[in-house]
Amino acid sequence: MQIEVVKSKIHRVKVTGADLNYIGSITIDEDLMDAANIIQGEKVQIVNNNNGERLETYAIPGPRGSGEITLNGAASRRVAVGDILILITYARMDIEKAKTFNPSLVFPNEENNLLN
After folding, report:
1. Quick one: signal sequence residues (predicted)?
2. Is residue 8 flagged as an active site residue?
3. Integer distance in angstroms from the first to the last C-alpha of the chain?
4. Which residue of 9, 25, 89, 109 has the fewest C-beta atoms within 10 A of its own C-beta?
5. Domains in the chain, start-ordered, CATH in brackets?
């Protein structure tokens, strides 16, 4: 049997941009992506602590060390610059593997989204 478990989480990052005219996705500082083991194009669940919205899109890398968290396309309408988000990815795995799996959890500085 396989189950879906949390693979990675970037906890409490601040939205730095919202670009309605971009094709779609979420732009994430590549340093944060690396720390959370998120790859380009990976599906990301976005939880908005400010308004309770939950949505899914895919990750694209932003400039390293920039702290960028930008929602693009239609998703930009579901956030405001300054909102606090939790970004989560999931993986399917055998239930026995899942019992010992440790997700990548990242807790960046809430003021600038940079790694401490």
Report:
1. none
2. no
3. 38
4. 109
5. 2-95 (2.40.40.20)
Q: Which residues pair with 17 in a beta bridge?
A: 70
Contact 94, 1 (CB under 8 A): yes
Q: How many CA atoms lie within 13 A of 85 on its CB side?
A: 33
The catalytically annotated residue of 25, 66, 76, 90 is: 25
Low-confidence ranges of the chain (pLDDT < 70): none
Residue 69 CA, chain-centre distance (Å), reads 8
Reported pTM: 0.95
Are 74 and 55 in contact, with CB atoms under 8 Å apart?
Answer: no
Say whether 90 is catalytic: no
Residue 75 labelled as part of a binding site: yes
Tell me the pLDDT tens digit for each residue of 70-93: 999 999 999 999 999 999 999 999
- Pair of tokens at residue 99: 């019992």
